[in-house]
Amino acid sequence: MLKVAVIDSGVNAGHSHVGTVAGGISFVSETWTDLIGHGTAAAAAIRDHESRIELYAVKIFDRSFAARIEDVVKALEWCAQTEMDVVNLSLGTAKAIHGEVLREASRKVNVLVAPYEFVGLPAHPGSFAWVFGLLPDPGW
Fold first, then answer.
1. What's 120's DSSP letter?
2. Residue 124 and residue 133: Cα distance in Å, rounded?
């Protein structure tokens, strides 16, 4: 079965659109439970497109959408070490220094999906050639 990790604000495993969560880890709190809803929404969207997956929550946001770059790197490394098949990273940064830090960690992941741009600029790691960079929906 395909192992899919959602690096975000955690996942609310009790949400009816998410279904079973195989496990998870938090780099910012005691639990990977979602307190702000974005990770749960991402997990539900993934589950809506493919129900036959093992879903994992990787929490790097707690009560706001601010994350330390070190936690993002740790999250990517955890996904590589636990052999996730696909990783959805719900963030991007235009800071060149963050790009350098994310370059090596993002190469370790089997398949990484992340935003291609941030505020109209190429985002890291979504703009790297080995990452599936998502463009914003023009209807938004």
1. T
2. 9
What six digits make up the tokens of 57? 């929550």
Residue (of 63, 85, 54) closest to 10 by Cα position: 63
pLDDT of residue 49: 93
d(CA 42, CA 106): 19
Give residue-wise pLDDT tens across range 56-75: 999 999 999 999 999 999 99
Work out the number of other CB atoms within 10 angstroms of the CB of residue 130.
11
**Full-prediction pTM beyond 0.85?**
yes
Q: Mean pLDDT, to the nearest integer, of 16-26?
A: 95
Query: Which among 86, 80, 126, 119 is positioned nearest to 103, based on CA atoms?
Result: 126
Burial class (CB in 10 A: 0-12, 13-18, 19+), 66: exposed
Q: How far is CA 55 from CA 21, 24, 69, 94, 140, in A?
A: 5, 9, 23, 28, 27
Please give the C-alpha separations between residue 135 and each of 16, 76, 99, in angstroms, as whole numbers: 28, 21, 18
